[in-house]
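hey so i finally got around to running the thing on that chain from the lab meeting. sorry it took forever, my laptop kept dying and i had to restart like 3 times. anyway pasting the input first so we r on the same page abt which one it is
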Amino acid sequence: MGHIPSQYLSNLEKYAYKSVDNSLITKHFLNPYWNWLITLCPSTVAPNTITLTGLLIVILNFLTLLFYDAEYLTLQRGAPSPPPNWLYFTWAIGLFAYQSLDAIDGKQARRTGMAGPLGEMFDHGCDALNTTLEVIMSLYALNLGRSWWTVAALIGTHANFYLTTWEEYHTGQLYLGVFSGPVEGILMIIAIYIFTGISGPSFWDRPLSSFFPFLSSIPFLSHIHLPSLPYFPSYSSPIPLSDLPLNVSFMVFSMFAVGFNIFTSYSNVRKATRSTQGSSSSHPLLYLLPFFGPLLLSLWLVQPSPEGSTLLYSPLFLPLICSWGLQFAHLVGKIILSHVTKMPFPVWDPVWLVTLAAVLELWLTRVFGVQPLIRFSSARTTVFVYATLVISLFEYARFCHKVIRDVTEHLGIACFTVRKKDEKGVWRKASEVGTVANGNTANGMDGVHEKRS
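ok and heres what got predicted. didnt touch it at all, straight out
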């Protein structure tokens, strides 16, 4: 049985990709580079293979993090053998390679006649996974690691990604502003890796005033103290704004940028729904609720208290947030599938039952004093966290397999080779079949400057 209901499969052939990109960096610098880079790519390489290669490079970078510090301690929390500085340069190269490959996959799709909704969904799935992995690695490079800043960064970046996908579902086009995650956000993370490679992770713990001494002479910054932050033990006493650590300053700046993008997405959806006769501008807001499904996992981190979390400061923190990232990728994958097939917006994912069980136990223990089953011992907690990771990975992999199978069979287009089915159902080279064999000439994979990366 297919994953996509038969009545929606025909919408794949009607799908037309639309996007807006206002990035000046893309227009004046990156796009000329991408136009040159695509000339080096053989026409026998499938666009999705290019996208997947970029993701595999990022996964390789992530595996090097696990090799040197599997417990995600960071130098600040006493990692026994922190990664050598040169490793961060490989992360920068890997992320730049990912951005480059993710940008040219759409150009390759047009060259080979393989453009279509499959590429849009495949690209979106890789982007969702990359988002979580880069948050994990960039927060490690910032020397924050096991901290509430990592949790906050995941919530912020996931919210930005979700809102952009939610916006595309309701407006019919992807909008990238003058500052977006796929372009400027990735370049900023690359810069973080380079600076960490040069000076080490402790570089980011230095106060702003050590780089800009004049900040201490500005009354607004020197006299106003940031209040103590009970959830952030490193900042348990008031601190002048001028002495805010560089890594925390970067996080604050990032949150403002994410907040701006979220507001822009909401404004675009509100404008689009108001212009549609008979549509309510408040109805799409209900579709923001599914975002909190994967987010429920973060509630487990507050036990027994936010400042004394047994999970946040344990080796289980990394597998827990990886589970969170996989569930998030599954959710946005279902949204983009609904977008290209005109299916109803997805509001539920069965994998959340595992998360809900953990949250229900947490609530029963807190309110009624019920003896916990999952958190009865550290061994049970460990089994549950890793079981959640395995289930989340399995469900997401199963979703991807079913969707790829349904789309390739219906459109007669291969996923990882440049082939299409002819009128007799025989697989041939795409150039021999023509560009309209699959009933779709839409450009569904057209680089970072025209779609999410």
